[in-house]
Amino acid sequence: WQMTPPLPILERRNWLIHLHYIRKDYDTCKAIIKEQLQDTQGMCEYAIYVQALILRLEGKIQQSLELFQSCSILNPTSSDNLKQVARSLFLLGKHKAAIEVYNEAARFNQKDWVKKPPMIPLCKHTHDAEEQLNMALQLNKHGMTYMMLGKIYLIQGNTEKAVEIYKIAVDFFPENTELLTTLGLLYMQLGKYQKAFEHLGNALTYDPNNYKAILAAGSMMQTHGDFDVAMNKYRVAAFTVPESPPLWTNIGMCFFGKKKYVAAISCLKRANYLSPFDWKILYNLGLVHLTMQQYASAFHFLSAAINLQPRMGELYMLLAVALTNLDDADNARRSYEQAVQLDEYVFQGLHLFYK
Amino acid sequence: MSSVPMELKDSAVTSSKWLDAHYDPVANLYTFSSCIALADLHGDGDNKLVVGDLGTGAGNTKLKVYRGIGLLSENTLLDLPTGLVSFLMDQHEPRTPAIAVASGPFIYIYKNLRPYFKFTLPFLEVNTLEQDVWSQARQDMIDTMTLKEMLESIRAKADIPLSVRSLRFLMLEPQEMETYVNLHKQQPIRRQTVITCIGTLKKNMVDEDAVSCLVVGTESQDVYILDPEAFTILSKMSLPSVPTLMDVTGQFDVEFRIIIACRNGNIYILRRDSPKPKYCIELCSHPVGLVRMGKNVVVGCAQETLQGYTQKGKKLWTAYLPAPVTTMAVLDLPTRGFQAVLVALANCEVHVYRDKNLVSTIKTPDVVSSICFGRYGREDGTLIMTTKGGGLIVKILKRTAVFDERDSAPGPPLAQSIRLNVPKKTKLYVDQTMRERENAVAMHRAFQMDLSRLRLAAARTYVKALESSLTPVSASLAEPLKMNAVVQGLGPSFKLTLNIQNTAVCRPVMNLAVSFLYDDRLYRMRTAFFKIPLLVPGLNYPIDTFVECLSEKGISDIIKVFVLREGKSVPLLTAHINMPASEGLALN
Predict the structure, then answer these.
(1) Whole-model pTM?
(2) Beta-carbon count within 10 A of B443 CB
(3) Are A148 and A120 in contact (CB under 8 A)?
(4) Pick the CATH number of B25-122+194-323 from 3.40.50.150, 3.40.50.1100, 2.130.10.10, 3.60.20.10
(5) Cross-chain residue pair B433–A292, CB shorter than 8 Å
(6) Nearest Cβ partner of B286 from A9, A22, A327?
(7) ipTM
């Protein structure tokens, strides 16, 4: 009979590893993991698991995948290990393999919502994705899941259903600014401005720095001639996202509304510099230059806009105004004709005007 | 208590709600909020600070007791302390609390700072199949390879995991197995687990000095409630994941709630008479801190948010934090009716929150890793913090300190008052605008005219280039060639390198020749005509030749290069090389 050395408890320091991991103290965490793996001769599943998580955070995905795989050898019945294997496979671009592993993990644990959303980018058909997400929602209500499902409906072109989903989601998460903003923008697209403004306003109450909501709400204020209030909002956005072309366009048009034309041109030119191929900015620049009676410049901006967007009647109309003022009656007429051709209904009255 | 270092005096101005009582940057404490407690250890109304020190993380673990600013006593601990609580275990006078230190599978109870009792967690159930296999091995009925196969099949299927003995056996090399089995086979198989968190629960009275039970969470995903006197297990509950943090309220005999944060990122709420969790809160990221404020649960998440929930798991609010949370504690001042949450952040700040409103900020010289608020010495409002670097900070809340109850959320953000950076326009710009207004028609016409001229000139040059094959890429589909030329040297001798490339996908080009055309009064070339070898697609062929400049006047001219196909007079490619002036002769 020999003295038997006591075998150590493998999970002895798991709590310490976890504590350092969630505090994002990865260096200490790695040191403890190393020690723990030495003590247990590489048998501590949790230590390997966290090491793999850290490696993945560091971008070493292949290594992390190998470690997760060794975790699932140590504990083959854990769906969590399989989930992580699938996630690493997904990050490596091996989508088919990832789906297979996710499905296998789902067999072990039917009631796990986490597995559903990551599969979405993998599903070939939006239909499959929709099904998976609906299942995930039945298991647990999560803001992210709603967001994804709404996006899927939008991809399918089903705006009504998307609005429905976002409405339910907003009821569940009244403080989720992302959901509020998305719903507000959808209402705006559908022309329900009152509701849109309500939701965007709510989003701004919870997060006054929300860039998307500021831009959308600001543009609505502008439509109502509330230029000063809109400018106040834009100042916040200009601080957080100083290089946004739509923002500078809107600021420019605010100045235009306030009859500060030079400032308007400055802002629009900045927007144009940031996004040279945006025809809306060029359209606005043309409009402001026409107002300033700078017809030669207006002509250039408008013709550039037409080159980028040749199917818009209003552009030809503005171009015609510029050409009329440049004493080029022939081309002006041609431009008017083009405008009428593109949008006959709107410009019926126009014939009378220039005849 | 006058030993306030200089650096802290500066921050004292900003956090004027607090008096800096003590700061020792080299106290050498490695601990967490779960391992510190304030307790009246001697029953004299003078509260001591008890710290379970993890030492180096591997050894030198100590149970330290501080009184005032000095270390009162030190006991060596055998292993890393996981949690530490002070609790009253009996009705004896004087009413001095005991200290329970959870460490591995044990709870060490100290009374009057002397070891008093050691509690060991019950062993876990061992897989019966595993037991059978090992008993067969003990009786030498199976050899090591069979043992290995059988254990592997158990591991793959069984609900109850294998013991450490079997797991280690499966990792061994075949030649080591025999001795390992002989060494261990006589011993009974055991599966042991460890404690991950510990708390206290009043037995049957609400008084502050009532007897309390110990509540422990284990790595085996169980929660045990222990009797304070006999240390028997009063109740056992199980969780879906490993518990990490816990908060306990109520009384064991009446009704209680145990709020437990788990390693899977969920929070479970256990109640009396229910062996399974009653409610579940699913978080989006790991909970780092968990405290209870009255009837609500406040969780600090790894994703830099602070979230409030009801005890039934309904979300109330979210506050966004500027940095990751390191630890949390409750700031409770019953005498003033004030309760708040202390959130220590990784950016060396401690934030004080009332619901979702930030009411105060404390700057610290280092990242705080453990925090605790309560009565220390004879002072009720004391804040104890230890830092990542091992420092110990003691602050006292001023009696005059008032926390603003204002709602911090609404109000315009600061950026709204920052002026827009609109680009300024110069006077020149304004002048040009005026000019355009007056002469718009003339400017437009001049521009249109020049534009037409430019287009004409461009078209002419293009046609010319096409006619003389002047482009750097051949227009012929049969011989897709690319060429560029490099001139090296200062003169009078120049080296001329032609890089010719066949850009076809797979077809080689043969029977090509190169010829040069130049003014023979100015230049001389050794070979003005040569053949090009077969051109393999994709490869770059550098062809060198030498040119000598004859003029001494520093004149330079153009040398024309033609790539020709045998039997055709029209060149495939033409290049004009602008020769540099010969500096070598000019110097002479």
Answers:
(1) 0.70
(2) 18
(3) yes
(4) 2.130.10.10
(5) yes
(6) A22
(7) 0.71
